[in-house]
């Protein structure tokens, strides 16, 4: 006699408590008493049965499929603690699920009262009445719990909207003071800023985790050691700057702030940039990297991405293999004319990029300026991330105001709009300073670098590193309809009139910084 235990708990905290132990103990006792062999235990962890989720995508759905396919043979016993383990959803659906299992020859045992249901039970009026009453009670209990939980959450939401601080589940570095009805930092809070400082230094979550484990910093969760996931969770958690982000609840100055806004958004900008680089830098499977602008270039006509088309082939005139690859707007993949942007011969484009990269690498030319330039770039990235975040808050607030007019929310909107304006002023100020710091070295030094770069570009590994460097330098790379290119990189604006023939590359709209060269 074969038996399978199906156990479920809807709250993940029950997994280490009495729920699993109780259900397993009942199953073992029943099997010992009836001489059955418990061949499998199937668990739905943290899955509610109120809306039937467990039967649609949980472990129960796999059990039902196995019964339908005959993998669980007729005559087997499906053990459940009580009827609500199989469902607390609508009575008709739960009843149909229960009876369909019986009709396939699998018996159901409710361990709490020892009742055994078989195929005959599906036609037994007494069993059907008991089944319907039990399922109705289970559904009503779940509905009551759901309504209570919803009402409690709505009450907390109203408190938050009024500026109050109700007790909520919060990060482990915070404790709730019932007397003052506010949150306080505990001993674990001292490690939070350390984690941010380490990430700014190492720029690697795994390196931060190793350092924390090396220093013996206690883990803030249940895991034994620090890992990338736990470090990342803290780095992106807005609770460190005092903000509440919990389901539908949003509030500023809700928790005590540990990390400054500047430091938090600097880390966010580093993380965002690293994610962008990981998406952009994807060498081909053979180790080569054809297009160093993959994921960076954009069409100035329609805003679409650019793709490489064409190949290298033998030229009788040149007596060698010649690169006939072009960058085209993605709109031309399915339409020959596309949006009207001309094609850009890649071999010429790469020559121009090498010159620009060498020029940027030569800026600035003093140790003090380099240090200041690095600080300005980091600050600009941080401010841009703050601006994006604030603009997102404004959009959300406008949506709320459209449905719920409120004087308080209107005041908040004005504050956010002023914050956006102030951030933009700071960005422009820092960009202007970065532009003043930027200056060129001698042309001889510049073109020596270009020559070395051209030789190195034949090495696939160097091309990957070069592409990665370009993605870090460049914020915008726009191809225009007249054949020119507009670039924003490292706080500089760069205009390229064309990529073949007499090329002029102008930095920051200054004739003094213009580079003239012939590309052929």
Automatic annotation (TrEMBL):
Sections of the chain in a coiled coil: 380-433
PROSITE patterns: RECOMBINASE_DNA_BIND, RECOMBINASES_3
Keyword DNA-binding: yes
Top-level taxon of origin: Bacteria
Boundaries of every Recombinase domain copy: 171-277
InterPro entries per UniProt: DNA_bind_recomb_sf, DNA_bind_recombinase_dom, Resolv_N, Resolvase-like_N_sf, SSR_resolvase, Zn_ribbon_recom_dom
Source organism of the structure: Shewanella submarina
Gene3D superfamilies from the UniProt entry: Putative Large Serine Recombinase, Chain B, Domain 2, Resolvase, N-terminal catalytic domain
Record key words, sorted: Coiled coil, DNA recombination, DNA-binding
Stretches assigned to the Resolvase/invertase-type recombinase catalytic domain: 2-160
Name used for this protein in its record: Recombinase family protein
């Amino acid at each position: 006699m074969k038996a399978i235990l199906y156990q479920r708990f809807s709250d993940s905290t029950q997994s280490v408590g009495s729920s699993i132990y109780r259900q397993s103990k009942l199953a073992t006792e029943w099997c010992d008493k009836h001489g059955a062999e418990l061949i499998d235990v199937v668990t739905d962890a943290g899955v509610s049965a109120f809306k039937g989720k467990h039967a649609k995508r949980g472990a129960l759905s796999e059990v039902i499929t196995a019964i339908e396919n005959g993998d669980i043979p007729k005559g087997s016993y499906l053990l459940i603690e009580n009827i609500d383990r199989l469902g607390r959803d609508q009575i008709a659906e739960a009843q149909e699920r229960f009876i369909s299992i019986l009709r396939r020859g699998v018996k159901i045992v409710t361990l709490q009262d020892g009742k055994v249901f078989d195929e005959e039970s599906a036609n037994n009026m007494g069993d059907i009445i008991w089944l319907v009453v039990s399922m109705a009670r289970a559904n009503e209990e779940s509905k009551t719990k759901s309504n209570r939980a919803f009402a409690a959450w709505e009450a907390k939401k109203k408190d938050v909207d009024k500026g109050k601080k109700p007790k909520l589940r919060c990060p482990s570095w915070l404790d709730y003071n019932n007397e003052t009805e506010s949150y306080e930092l505990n001993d674990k809070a001292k490690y939070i800023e350390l984690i941010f400082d380490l990430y700014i230094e190492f720029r690697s979550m795994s390196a931060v985790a190793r350092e924390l484990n090396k220093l013996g910093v206690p883990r803030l969760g249940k895991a034994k050691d620090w890992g990338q996931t736990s470090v990342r969770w803290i780095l992106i958690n807005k609770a460190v700057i005092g903000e509440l982000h919990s389901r539908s609840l949003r509030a500023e100055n809700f928790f005590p702030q540990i990390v400054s806004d500047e430091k938090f958004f600097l880390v966010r900008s580093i993380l965002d940039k690293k994610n962008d680089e990981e998406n952009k830098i994807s060498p081909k499977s053979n180790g080569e990297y054809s297009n160093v602008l993959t994921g960076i270039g954009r069409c100035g006509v329609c805003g679409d991405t650019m793709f490489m088309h064409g190949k290298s082939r033998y030229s009788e005139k040149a007596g060698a293999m010649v690169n006939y690859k072009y960058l085209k707007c993605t709109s031309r993949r399915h339409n020959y004319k596309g949006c009207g942007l001309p094609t850009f011969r890649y071999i010429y484009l790469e020559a121009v990029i090498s010159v620009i990269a060498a020029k940027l690498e030569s800026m600035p030319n003093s140790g003090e300026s380099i240090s200041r330039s690095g600080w300005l770039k980091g600050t600009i990235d941080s401010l841009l991330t703050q601006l994006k975040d604030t603009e997102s808050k404004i959009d959300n607030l406008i949506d709320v105001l459209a449905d719920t007019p409120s004087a308080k929310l209107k005041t908040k909107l004005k504050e956010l709009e002023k914050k956006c304006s102030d951030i933009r002023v700071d960005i422009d100020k820092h960009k202007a300073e970065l532009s003043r710091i930027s200056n060129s070295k001698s042309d001889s030094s510049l073109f020596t670098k270009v020559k070395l770069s051209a030789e190195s570009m034949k090495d696939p590994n160097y091309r990957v590193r070069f592409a990665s460097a370009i993605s870090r330098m460049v914020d915008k790379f726009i191809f225009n309809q007249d054949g020119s290119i507009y670039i924003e990189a490292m706080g500089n604006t760069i205009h390229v009139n064309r990529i073949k023939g007499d090329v002029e590359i102008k930095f920051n709209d200054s004739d003094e910084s213009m580079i003239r060269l012939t590309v052929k």
